[in-house]
Specification:
alpha/beta, 7 helices, globular, two-stranded antiparallel sheet, single chain, Oxidized Rhodanese, domain 1
């Protein structure tokens, strides 16, 4: 397997994040640094993020969460503050979303769980429509709920 060498800011950011994450596992008092490192990793890198990075972004209050599931299940329960932008009604819902959210908005799209493709589909559509800062939270609502993180809706 070929070795890919990272350069510059990307390498420094990933090394910094790795050191902070390692230290935070040793000392719980570094949990705020761990959150900051998770945010730094999420803002760079690939298009998918894990529970730790997602929660750190949620706590930063600087991200728009998008629920890609159907509106029916969105109203039953969703991540607190999330906006419904379902795969099935994307074309109908998008104009209103576009009016409310600037193209440089940092967006985290989620679905039910990792095997659900709706989040990836909606993320691709957002990118196609000009949004550049789009991540997919792969764990989905099931993982979020099991972690006991903030939710709202009829069943929350």
């Amino acid at each position: 397997m070929p070795l890919t060498i990272m350069k510059g800011k990307t390498l420094r950011r990933k090394l910094f994040a790795a050191v902070i994450i390692l230290l935070s596992s040793i000392s719980p008092s570094l949990s705020q640094l761990h959150a900051a490192a998770s945010v730094a990793v999420a803002q760079g890198g690939t298009g998918e993020i894990d529970l730790s990075a997602t929660k750190a972004l949620y706590d930063s209050h600087s991200v728009c969460f998008v629920d890609a599931r159907s509106e029916y299940v969105y109203y039953k329960s969703h991540i607190k503050g999330a906006i419904s932008l379902s795969k099935s009604r994307f074309d109908e819902q998008f104009p209103d979303f576009r009016q409310k959210k600037a193209l440089d908005t940092f967006i985290v799209v989620y679905c039910t769980e990792a095997s659900c493709g709706n989040a990836r589909n909606v993320a691709k559509k957002l990118i196609k429509n000009g949004y550049k800062n789009v991540k997919v939270y792969t764990g989905g609502l099931i993982e979020w709920a099991h972690a006991g993180f903030p939710m709202e809706g009829e069943l929350a």
